[in-house]
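The following record pairs a protein chain with its ligand, 1-deoxynojirimycin.
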Amino acid sequence: MTNTTLSPSDALLGPDADWWRQAAVYQIYPRSFADANGDGVGDLRGILSRVDYLKGLGIDAVWMSPFYPSALADGGYDVDDYRDVDPRIGTLAEFDELVAALHARSLKLIVDIVPNHSSDRHVWFQEALAAGPGSPERDRYIFRDGLGENGELPPADWTSTFGGPAWTRVADGQWYFHMFAKEQPDWNWANREIRDDFLKTLAFWADRGVDGFRIDVAHALTKRLPEPLPTAAELADPTLFPVGDHPLSDRDDVQEVYAEWRELFNRYSPPLTAVAEAWVPADRRVRYASRDSLGQAFNFDLLRATWNPEEFRTIIRDNLALAGQSGASSTWVFSNHDVVRHASRYGLPSGGEGREWLLSGGTSEVEDRDLGVARARAVSLLAFALPGSAYLYQGEELGLPEVVDIPESERQDPAFFRNRGVEIGRDGCRVPLPWTTEGSSFGFGSGDSHLPQPVWWGDYSVETEEADDSSTLHFYRRALALRHELQTAEELSWIDAPESVVAFRRPGGWVSVTNFGVESVELPAGRVVIASGALDGDRLPADTTAWIVVDAD
Ligand code: NOJ
């Protein structure tokens, strides 16, 4: 299925142009979703076999993390070829089938674009290595001579995001820059060829029918490296570089790239959407989320929010205000493939991001699974009531916990290998989904799974939860269906409530109330249409959210 190309003047007229504004978007991490061919790695056929499950959840769109050919040095965020499917995952024909199957069910598809870096197996990186210093091939990446008498020292003392040096030396003695793993060389976005090639990639997927893009590391594409290169300490000194002119990050000129992308997006009907993964201060996020740019940007504030009503109120207030400034809708996200699953985070007494807990192999504190799931359900229901898009991560609809005790020998994440003792990595939220209560890899596939699943995984399986009307799966389905029914204008008004309660009203007399306290509280008058846990008569217990509809007389 392909999109229609229209002239720019027609572009804004698409009937469905605002579909993303209050969409529920479900993130699939393809290698861990469903494995149809039994090789231990999830694949497109696996996803195809579950499209009715996806539709039944009540989502509006699927976001697929990278499925491109890759050596998996960083779980697929090291792309060998931007315009193909990893043969272990499927084929382009299967991709087309998936687009058609989703569209037939009125589900949109967003794919991940990784424009900051390629993999070191990308044909252009291989050409850059072969062509040598000073060549046009090398100019597609960021190469520099080293320091020291024989260039034996890196050009600068910078550290990569995953730990270890950010410069790696090649056979002829030059060094290349990689913000992430050494297998992920950064592109040189000052080179017109790179810009043109990404426009080609975006059009390639758009012409195959995708509806939008999630842009990886959106803040870091353009760079300006002064000579001599600043030190790591200088890079981190905010007084040395004005906002918008940092050598590596969040440069004003990255918007020139997105202006070109927007022009391409608007040639389709409805215009393609894009959401930026931009790790920038909140006020700078507005630039990426604006209509002339990508159109939406993730706010990761809820990924870090502790169980604290004031924190939630502030995050909601601030992000709705920012959305007002950019004209985009806000994004709400508790879990993704990079963080500890929120059902576990909220079960930790420390209430933090869970990094120390991961590092200790789950021994530094005791996870309370029941509490974690109860709170995760409560905050998810709260977020589903907010104006804006809700981004869900595969498995959260099952209340899946993090897997904290993956043996070192089975770990895959470069963050673990490059930063031993400091980071345990993100494998624990990427363990393949349990579809059945028992059986090989709990229904993920007919063989083993590429990351080991714990023995208790089946307790959280789709099959187990289907059979239990009070399960998180049934709860998510009811919540997402109701959200569709109740959601109207993107407005929210706060309701007077005790300090420990977060309560707000949406247009149409729909109220969401969350009790962050320890005592139950009285529910507002009206009809409770859903609650994240059992109610206590007409009172809302601790760790619970309820939606109330105030029927007009
Ligand atoms: C952000 C992605 O979400 C993460 O998984 C990846 O490791 C980095 N970007 C580098 O591409």
